[in-house]
Give the backbone structure.
Amino acid sequence: MTSLAPSLSDADRIATLRRRCLRAKPWPIWWDPITMARSLRESEGVASWQLRRGLLTRDRLAALPFDLDDRELLMGRLGPPADVPTPARQEAEEYLKRYEWPGGQSGHCALDMTRLFADGLPGLHSSVEGLRQGAKGEKADVYQSFLYALDGFGHMIERAARTAEDALPQASDARREELRDMAASCRRIAHGPPETFRDAIQLIWFAEFGVMLCDDAHLAAPGRLDLLLRPYYEADLEHGRITRERALLLIENLYLLLNETVVDGLAIPVMVGGRDAAGRDVTSDLSYLCLEALRRTKLIYPTVGICWHPGTPQALTDLAIDLIGRGYATPAFFNDETIQRGLRALGAPPEDACNYINSACVEITPVGGSAVWVASPYYPTCTILLEEIAAQATDGAAATFDAFLDRYRARLSRAVAAGVEEQNALRRQRARWGGKPLQSVLTRDCLERGLDIERGGARYNWVECSFVGLANLADSLEAIRQEVYVARGMTLADLKAMLDADFRGHEAARERLLGGHAKYGNGDRAVDGLFGEMVRFAVAECAKHRMEPDGSPFVPGAFAWTMHESLGRQCGATPDGRRAGTPFADGCGPAQGRESRGPTAAILSTTSWDHAPMIGGLAYNMKFSGGLFTGPESLARLRDLVLTFLRRGGFETQINVVSRATLARARTHPDEYRDLVVRIGGYTDYFTRLSPEMQDEIMLRTEYAEV
């Protein structure tokens, strides 16, 4: 599919707004202690913490300031904080220290917009009021807290409308028409269901914006935009209320608001395509527009995942491949069949198994019904291996490799159990001191159960952990097998001494460990088998545990966000020849620089084991030289490579097309490369804003010069 040919004015509008997004955010984390302290003081006489949380969300929503310039087409950019004297702010912050603000996950979800779209804000408010009248005791308090949150949500939307109306006197004639449209849209969705495409996309943003900033449920995602917006888009096209180009412009404005609001270094997803519960492809024109909107915005948010299956139109695949080949890092491919199979195994019915979102990076959660915690915790598999080597070097080594591996598994098992207990303790804190009333109203089945999302109201309450450095682990285990148990050229005590010294004085041995043994990513059955064996162990071990409050599953994954760098920095040298402090592998692919047989062999290794149980997320990064994809033939080869990965059951793949030389220039001249976006461990970020260590990790990755 060819790109749209935008008018110059639209292109200029997006370019101007995009430049503002690239500047440092004036208030990187929204924090309004004055409103929070005032609300909590006023509710001190209320016995129910749930009611106090509802009042707090209401007051925070009602106080949100908006800003607006002469180019924006959607309301919802955060205005500057109120100018409050420093002593008053300090006093408010001191007061807030009286309260316990629990740890643990929040957000990482796509909200349920079905009721809000169908009934509008007044209709939803009326439904909750009916539930409140039929409830008693604690449940009545829960529903009342939801009503408070909806009241605040309505006030927030009305404030946005007034902000647009206040700008009318100073606006040009053309801009006045836009401002009237914006204000009228806000008024409509404050008082009824959305009627148009503009109304629907505006309401999606208001819901995300309010939940993120006032329920502290960070990283609420637009989710399946092509499914949510399709009825409004098609109706508007039919009645002449919108053009395809105008719809694209509004999607671009939504993407820009995401970049204005969400701090850098995180992840916000959109997904397109896929299938419905009956297995029918759901790709629509909006699927293409959601991808096409990346072309002019070209920022870190959102990533757009294609839910690929064999019936996905080739044109959609080709559009994503075209963007990737041109250096856009934000598109990614997710395997719809693999993911649905994993979700069904966790008990999700067909209608939920087909409607999922990568909740931030690549962690999968069901749309609209999720209180799933992701990346909780990260397990540094190689650090645990070093602990086992040290224990056996001191207490006596296992007689066989299998016995060594059994002892390591037992240690990893204890680490998993400790992580489960930690997460359950955090969930108990959340149940006591948490509360997210607006998010609860927009999450199935909180209304039906009369429970806040923090207390088990959601349909899905899984916890998803992540095992980091599995490629390094597999390579290390193969080296131990060969060096200690096959060749018997060293003992575990010898190995420990060498690793403790970070290979100083043992360079020849390090070279042998690094290059003399098979490495994951080259199609070697032995080391690939070790990787698969450890994945199967992680899956089985996690299945032994249940999470509070309702006995939900503990679900494994193997993605890293940035933790492969930070956990690697904390870890000593490892038996695969990796030096101390070096980043671990960034996902389920090979460790950096170890693919010696090209991308196809790496794909064969990466898909040699079953990905479906790893719903906690798998990311397979590929990196190609910039300028490699200059014509249809090279793009077709890239497409075939991606499809090979997917047809073999691969979970997710994402691709950097940028040369090492470009990255080196960006390090030297960061101001010239402020918008250079790269894929990390499941998410995208600006290369020049990464830490020097993370920049090193990106540059260490194998760069394929051909495909």
